[in-house]
Specification:
mainly beta, five-stranded antiparallel sheet, five-stranded mixed sheet, about 35% strand
């Protein structure tokens, strides 16, 4: 149940999905997402061509009329059929009468202006042969003859086709075939039509020869000797018959492959003259549509492209170029090339960042695309974009990372990085694309740490590997990839575990008996690195004492210090990526030293850490939830699974506005097993155990001890037991000394405690301004430095300490710490808690971020009970508490993130990003940011009939449908057959107009001008006709006078 439609004048594409979603695409950057409230599958779409309206038919037997002349399309009318099921619809060009075919084989006619039924009905028993004893099946096709609107071609599933005369209300011809029909298409001259059948054949019929097909074709059948019929093939699900002025017609079809082509990919077949091209697709073909130059069915069609809707992609094929290349898709649908495993959102980035990413991304364009412009070019862009750059980074299951420009209302891909390039390819992997997260994804991205100012990028993968990247505009070849192996082992009191306590490796299909095979191997050959992100260092956690490396739960990188730090449930490791050395490798317990407040016990021989019930705790992706997290998840699933979050997604909350949904996939009904099946889960057990994972890391320059008089570089470490520990960093001088002298790392002894796992930490100065971590400005490191540059020491950004001169302030900084349950503001260096807020008692915080909004800093939290809350800083005064979205899915919890200026996002389905805002300014500007789908375009002129066709009546025959289908001629339809439901479109239209009254007035004036112009043209034509009639009358009178008195023999 899918649908596809195209308006050839407006050049807008519409796609309907199984979940009742409606996607509308214009030119790149003009997109719209709508949702039918019922959620029923969309089975067909019909544009009112160049009218700014669309009819959708749903699987629940309702028809809806959408108004596309407003920025937010809305339903104007609905019609619910009660007694019959809708199977096919057809709306002729420039007609207001919609033909609706049903499962019973009847055809009803709907007036699309009033959305009421006509009394004119074509009953199945009148259409078929009276002698036929069987029902012909549901209607699978309706279309009018291109040359005669009074003749309707009706296709029944059983194989019967009827040409129905609308005026005489009887069948002119009946065409019968043994095989079931899937689709029918006309030749533009109206003398032939083609049918596709369930045995893989095509039959071409002459309209006036109903006894047998003019021609039978089996496109993929093997031609047998002795004149036997070809072997049957798979059904041809759809066929289109398009003519060209200059050459042979195109016959385009989907399906029809031979049954012996097992394992072959789905194909689209293009037959043009004697050539047949078979185009393989990556996914199943849902539907296709041929784009033609003219909207008139009785003219040469001149096809130029084919839109192919695949199960998980949208492809456009160029018919005008040899080899039929595809167009490069400009829409952000490629987010689902591989499932999204994590995402980060950065607002207010450096202004030079997007151009830099775009410039390196532009070089990545693959060859072989069509050279023509993207043909779907309708609509207009919104008037404004955000006043600041926004970037979204998505990490994927195949190890790829994509950078997206999110400054406008739609996403634009900037750059793609493939992290798997650093590893040897696994030989047993299938090359076919896969859109499910599976256990064989060893490169899946878990955590992304990015410094926009220095452009340093660090990722943690599911196989317990960390890769550090630098940005460069130069291409380089790395002879040997720098790599470090790190051993992180959880031990207490050196108690060795018996053999029975050895943790078995994760059951990974396809890895065989060798558990080491799940760890990817770094390439040992030279690696050519294109401009963009280039590998600085690879860090791999290794097996220790037969135990697999535990997945990384927290990650941070700092460009000013040249350090990267990461932790898991075993401990913490710090690496100097400039000197390529390990500085720190400690178990979590060793961080406490003698100050450990917890009672630790050796691992019990009876205890195994096998995942129970197939449910793994996502400590990493959840930013370190507590050890009781899994129990909370169980409670959440039972309490919220019955409630639908559907209406929350698409209704505008007074405070929280989901300001757009980037449906990066049209197919959001895909089963989402990303949580339960993904290896992006840590290997901690469901029951509460003594392991304490690292859940938050933050580099900063602050006061490490109470006795400190000045800030110094340090690392703050948060754990899942609610502890914050401080590690002191003693950095050598900058320049060459930084590469020669070691960095000295030592625990400070400072310990702070909160309730629940630590999620986020940040620092404020005395004015309440955010103190960002020190960073280096970006520079091109692949180009040799000048001597002057070498002499300059690398300066770190100074900490902004600005105490007021009017009063003595003894405290110099504030630490803001957010955990699953509470937030605290601690003054430094005294370490006194000055503000405390218990965020939730009955739930827990899934994501907390310290963000800037309206020139101030606040703490934004998303709770598992669906509430979004914000708190002022440093006072922690509640500013906002809105129920937005219950946690019905772990994907939401894994991907939800806040950023500056009141923005947030999460994955609403496996392949859809939902952005939302709690900023009043963005809400006010949103209407202006939306693009317009409908633009006033003049309808092309009708094809010229030609002198002889006009003289001898060979041109297209028009039909006064009003005379046939109107109430005066056909009467009223039965009220019980269908129920009319007024839509909210009128009210929505008024709301949409509020932001652009001037635009609406201009549009109204333009419409009036168009109407006046048409009336003027009509008046001129009427005057011309009157003059012609008068002239004819005058000439006739003169002839009569001339021959009045003559005898017959005088002529």
């Amino acid at each position: 149940m899918w649908a596809l439609a195209f308006d050839p004048v407006q050049k807008i594409l519409a796609i309907g999905t199984q979940t009742g979603a409606l996607r509308l695409f214009g030119r790149p950057g003009v997109e719209c997402y709508c949702q039918h409230d019922s959620g029923a599958a969309v089975i067909q779409l019909q544009f009112l061509i160049n009218e700014g309206a669309l009819v959708s038919a749903l699987a629940d037997d309702t028809l809806h009329l959408w108004n596309l002349r407003q920025k937010r399309p809305a339903i104007l009318h609905s019609l619910k059929f009660n007694r019959e099921r809708i199977t096919f619809c057809h709306l002729p060009f420039q007609s207001k009468w919609l033909y609706v075919g049903t499962e019973r084989g009847n055809i009803h006619i709907v007036n699309v202006e009033s959305f009421t039924l006509s009394g004119y009905v074509i009953m199945w028993n009148k259409a078929i042969e009276l002698s036929s004893k069987s029902h012909p099946g549901p209607i699978v096709h309706i279309s009018d003859n291109p040359m005669d609107e009074g003749k309707l071609l009706i296709g029944f599933e059983s194989g019967t086709v009827v040409l129905w005369d609308l005026k005489s209300k009887k069948a002119d011809y009946r065409y019968t075939h043994d095989e079931a029909i899937h689709s029918v298409a006309w030749h533009h001259e109206g003398k032939q039509f083609i049918c596709s059948h369930s045995d893989g054949t095509l039959t071409i019929w002459n309209v006036k020869s109903p006894t047998k097909p003019f021609q039978t074709i089996t496109p993929h059948g093997k031609q047998l000797k002795d004149g036997k019929k070809p072997e049957p093939c798979k059904p041809i699900l759809k066929v289109e018959y398009k003519t060209t002025r200059a050459g042979e017609p195109f016959i385009i079809l989907s399906g029809g492959l031979s049954y012996d082509t097992v394992g072959r990919r789905p194909c689209l077949t293009v037959m043009h003259g004697k050539s047949t091209a078979v185009l393989e697709m990556d996914y199943s073909i849902v539907d296709f549509l041929t784009l033609c130059e003219t909207p008139y069915p009785n003219d040469f069609q001149e096809p130029y492209a084919v839109v192919v809707l695949l199960e998980k992609d949208l492809v456009l094929i160029d018919l005008a170029q040899n080899g039929y290349p595809i167009f490069e898709n400009p829409y952000p649908l490629t987010i689902h090339e591989s499932p999204v495993t994590c995402c980060e959102y950065f607002a207010d980035c450096p202004v030079d960042l997007i151009p830099a990413l775009y410039s390196v991304g532009a070089r990545q364009k693959r060859q072989g695309y069509s050279k023509k412009e993207w043909p779907i070019s309708g609509g207009n862009w919104g008037l404004i974009t955000q006043s600041y750059p926004e970037i979204i980074i998505t990490g994927h299951a195949d190890g790829s990372i994509k950078f997206w420009d999110a400054s406008a209302i739609t996403l634009q891909v900037l750059y793609k990085l493939k992290t798997a390039k650093v590893f040897e390819k696994s030989r047993n992997k299938d090359d076919r694309p896969n859109t499910d997260i599976v256990d064989e994804d060893p490169y899946a991205i878990q955590i992304i740490s990015w410094c926009p100012e220095s452009r340093m990028l660090c990722i943690a993968g599911v196989s317990a590997h960390v890769i550090i990247y630098r940005f460069s505009k130069q291409e380089v070849t790395t002879e040997v990839i720098p790599m470090l192996e790190v051993r992180l082992l959880y031990e207490i009191n050196d108690v060795e575990s018996p053999d029975g306590d050895q943790v078995p490796p994760l059951p990974t299909p396809g890895t065989g008996s060798n558990p080491q095979s799940i760890v990817p191997q770094v390439k040992n050959s030279p690696l050519k690195q294109s401009p963009g992100y280039q590998i600085e260092l690879v860090i791999q956690l290794v097996w220790v004492s037969g135990e697999p490396p535990q997945q990384i739960t927290s990650l941070a990188v700092n460009s000013a210090y040249g350090l990267v730090v990461f932790g898991n449930c075993n401990g913490i490791a710090m690496v100097d990526y400039l000197q390529k050395t390990v500085l720190l490798n400690l178990g979590t317990i060793e961080l406490y030293g003698s100050n450990d407040p917890y009672r630790r016990e050796p691992r019990s021989p009876r205890k195994t850490r096998q995942p129970s019930g197939g449910m793994l705790t996502v400590a990493s992706c959840m930013c370190g939830l507590s050890n009781l997290y899994s129990e909370s998840v169980k409670k959440l699933r039972t309490s919220y699974i019955s409630k639908s979050s559907h209406e929350n997604l698409y209704s505008v909350n007074p405070c929280i506005l989901p300001f757009f949904l980037i449906n990066t996939d049209l197919f959001s009904d895909v089963k989402d097993n990303s949580f339960s099946r993904s290896r992006s889960s840590s290997v901690t057990s469901i029951d509460k155990e003594t392991r304490e994972a690292i859940s938050a890391l933050h580099f900063c320059e602050t006061f490490t001890r109470k006795s400190d008089t000045s800030p110094s570089p340090c690392l703050w470490v948060g754990t899942t037991l609610g502890t914050v520990l401080v590690i002191v960093l003693n950095l050598p001088p900058g320049g060459e000394q930084r590469l020669l002298q070691p960095v000295i790392v030592s625990p400070s002894g400072t310990i702070l405690r909160l309730k629940g796992a630590i999620l986020r930490m940040a620092f404020l100065d005395t004015t309440g301004s955010l103190v960002p971590p020190a960073h280096e400005p970006w520079r091109e490191h692949n180009v040799a430095e000048d001597k002057d540059e070498k002499d300059k020491s690398k300066k770190r950004r100074p900490v902004s300490v600005s105490p007021s001169s009017s009063q003595e302030i003894s405290e110099n900084q504030y630490a803001v710490i957010c955990s699953e349950k509470q937030a605290k503001v601690i003054s430094l260096p005294s370490q006194n808690c000055i503000y405390k807020q218990n965020i939730t008692e009955t739930s827990f915080v899934l994501r907390g971020d310290i963000v800037s909004l309206n020139n101030s800093i606040c703490l934004a939290c998303f709770c598992a009970n669906g509430h979004i809350m914000t708190f002022s800083l440093p006072s922690l005064r509640p500013l906002l508490d809105v129920y937005y979205l219950p946690l019905t899915n772990m994907r939401i919890a894994r991907t939800f993130c806040f950023t500056n200026n009141g923005q947030a996002l999460y994955l609403v389905s496996p392949t859809e990003i939902q952005r939302l805002t709690y900023s009043q300014e963005t809400c006010e500007n949103l209407q202006e940011m939306l693009g317009e789908l409908f633009t006033p375009v003049e309808t092309p002129e009708a094809p010229n009939r030609g002198f002889f066709k006009g003289l001898f009546g060979g041109g297209a025959q028009s039909l006064d449908r009003e005379e046939l289908f109107g109430e005066s001629a056909s009467g009223k339809a039965s009220r019980s057959l269908a129920q009319h439901i007024p839509g909210p479109g009128g009210i929505e239209g008024v709301k949409g107009a509020a932001s652009g009254v001037v635009g609406e007035l201009a549009r109204a004036r333009l419409a009036l001008d168009e109407r006046g112009q048409k009336l003027g043209e009509l008046e001129e034509k009427t005057a011309a006709m009157l003059y012609s009639a008068d002239s004819f009358s005058k000439h006739a009178h003169e002839m009569m006078l001339k021959y009045k008195d003559k005898k017959w023999y005088q002529f």
